[in-house]
Design brief:
Blueprint: H1 2-68, H2 71-79, H3 82-96, E1 100-105, E2 110-113, H4 126-132, E3 137-141, E4 150-159, E5 162-171, H5 178-187, E6 190-195, E7 198-202, H6 220-228, E8 233-239, E9 242-252, E10 258-267, H7 268-369, H8 371-443, H9 449-516, H10 518-577
Antiparallel strand pairs: 1-2, 1-5, 3-4, 4-5, 6-7, 6-10, 8-9, 9-10
Helix pairs in contact: 1-7, 7-8, 7-10, 8-9, 8-10, 9-10
């Protein structure tokens, strides 16, 4: 559970931090994107406004060209027929929707005005002078037909290649603010027409709600760039206390001189409102995404940790089995130690038998040499014979005990083999589980790297456990073979001891009879000498066999201790490798 809780906390923290970073980046990108969009929008609106200016000028110029081509008007100009021209200009204005229409003669004198009764004065506007020179002109300027800053166009009236008069048309949409209102309605941006640096038509309003007519720009940087150098300005500017994203473009008269500016801009409060709205929705989106990712991650972690819990349960079972192996190894070690003591005792008794048999052989040789001394020494020989008989009986009993100990060791080694097989099976299952866990960790990508390392360590430990189990099995087989060999030798020893006991009993009978019959004793002594010689050989074999059995039992004892140590080491490793 601790491991799972750590993964959950680390994952949620990482996702939360990643969400915050994503939100900040998204908000910055959204703000930058909205500002760039605002700048592009204002620039596009300026292009639209400039196109509208050009279209307006082209419209009144085309109208002027149509009027200048009228034959009746041409003849009336040549006749200086002001009355006719007055009626004609007035009707033309009503029919064409014009705001101002003026006709002058070749000297610049006004013949008629459709929008006024004034006539006879000299029209001294830029477009009029240019048209008297035979050019079609248009532009934004003061004067013309309206006498104010407005759209103006002038077209010469030609007769046989000579200028006989000029048709001048003006549009007062600037003073009536229809042009700027139309731009705002279409684009949604503020629009202003400047005469010089003074606002003469604008959609921007003052605090009292009136249009900001007559107010000045008050920005030398913009004035210098637009009015002096004739360039377009892009950037932010404060207008009547409010910050705007702006574009200022020069307005030129018919001669190409800059005498005004066209402004298009967006109040940044509006843009900030859009940014705040965008921030809100981005924040909501990021929060929802974080919640969904956390829920998905929680389910993923639950599925990822479940195999770990199963692995822990299996490790608990392995630990219990290892405890059983350790206990069995301890019992085996104790039995082996006891068997080692017993075999050493048997070896000592066998040596005593060999020594006693050698002494008996010497005695029998002396008996053969001197029949008289046999009678005297028969009593001592009888006592020695009784001692030897007791020793053989003890050796026989020790051999039987040794055989039982060997059988116990055989049963114990069989139990060890079963435990080792179980350890190998558990190690194989653990290795398979670690492989599955590594596959699941690989599927998890970056999130599963830490668990993949743990799975690899579990796999290595399982391999080492399997290797140790194989070594234990090998040692157990060697111990079983040694015990089997020792059991065979003990069986032989018991048989020999039984044979010796029988021979000594017969010898005892013969020795008692030799006391009563000396002559018979010589004959019997010869037979006994042969039997004793055979006993010496048998005692040597018994001593050799018991020494070999002692060496084998010592090896069994050492193997048992090594098995106990390996079981304890395996138990410790599994405890350390168990996942919290």
């Amino acid at each position: 559970m601790k491991f799972r809780r750590k993964i959950e906390i680390m994952t949620v923290s990482s996702l939360f931090a990643m969400g915050l970073v994503t939100a900040v980046v998204c908000l910055r990108q959204a703000t930058s994107s909205l500002r760039n969009m605002g700048q592009d929008n204002v620039a596009n609106c300026m292009n639209l406004a400039l196109e509208s200016v050009d279209l307006e000028l082209e419209r009144i110029k085309s109208t002027a060209e149509s009027i200048s081509a009228n034959a009746d008007i041409v003849q009336a100009i040549q006749r200086d027929d002001g009355a006719y021209l007055k009626r004609t200009t007035k009707s033309s204005m009503e029919a064409l929707g014009l705001k101002a229409l003026t006709i002058i003669n070749e000297r610049g004198a006004v013949l008629a005005r459709g929008h006024s009764d004034n006539a006879g004065d000299i029209l001294n506007s830029e477009v009029a002078r240019g048209a008297l020179g035979g050019k079609n002109l248009m532009g934004m300027e003061i004067g013309g037909s309206t006498g104010t800053f407005s759209f103006n166009a002038a077209v010469p009236v030609m007769v046989m290649g000579r200028v006989v008069g000029v048709v001048v048309i003006g549009d007062d949409s600037v003073s009536e603010h229809t042009f700027v209102d139309r731009i705002k309605k279409v684009t949604g941006t503020e629009c202003t027409i400047f005469q010089g640096d003074t606002r003469v038509s604008t959609t921007i309003k003052k605090a009292d709600g009136d249009r900001a007519i007559g107010t000045t720009l008050n920005n030398n940087v913009i004035s210098d760039k637009v009015l002096t150098r004739g360039e377009t300005f892009f950037g932010d500017n404060v207008i009547l206390g409010k910050k705007h994203m702006t574009v200022y473009a020069p307005l030129k008269d018919s001669s190409g001189n800059v005498d005004g500016m066209l402004f298009v801009g967006m109040n940044l409060d509006r843009l900030n409102a859009l940014v705040e709205k965008q921030v809100f929705w981005v924040s909501v989106s990021v929060i929802l995404v974080i919640i969904l990712v956390i829920l998905a991650t929680y389910r993923f972690i639950s599925g990822l940790v479940r195999p770990i819990t199963v692995a822990n349960a299996l490790l608990d079972e392995v630990i219990l089995d290892i405890d059983g192996v350790a206990s069995g190894a301890t019992e085996l070690s104790a039995s082996a130690d006891q068997m080692n003591v017993t075999t050493e005792q048997i070896a000592r008794n066998a040596d005593n038998q060999r020594v006693n048999a050698e002494k008996m052989s010497t005695a029998m040789e002396e008996l053969s040499a001197s029949i008289d001394e046999v009678s005297n020494s028969s009593t001592a020989s009888l006592a020695q014979l009784n001692t030897a008989l007791e020793a053989t009986q003890q050796g026989n009993m020790a051999g039987i005990s040794t055989k039982k100990a060997m059988e116990t060791i055989t049963h114990t080694t069989a139990r060890i083999a079963q435990a080792v097989d179980m350890i190998q099976e558990i190690a194989n299952q653990t290795n398979l589980l670690s492989l599955n866990a590594a596959i699941e960790a690989a599927k998890a990508g970056e999130q599963g790297k830490g668990f993949a390392v743990v799975a690899e360590e579990v796999r290595k430990l399982a391999e080492r456990s399997a290797t140790s189990a194989k070594e234990i099995a090998k040692y157990n087989i060697e111990a079983r073979e040694s015990v089997t060999s020792g059991d065979q030798m003990v069986t032989i020893t018991v048989d020999i001891m039984s044979s010796i006991n029988t021979s000594l009993n017969q010898f005892a009978v013969q020795t008692r009879e030799s006391v009563n019959a000396t002559r018979e004793q010589a004959k019997t002594g010869a037979e006994v000498a042969r039997d004793v010689a055979s006993s010496v050989n048998n005692s040597s074999a018994i001593a050799s066999a018991t020494h070999e059995m002692a060496s084998s039992t010592h090896e069994v004892s050492r193997t048992a201790h090594e098995l106990s140590r390996l079981a304890a080491e395996l138990q410790s490793k599994i405890h350390r490798s168990k996942l919290a």
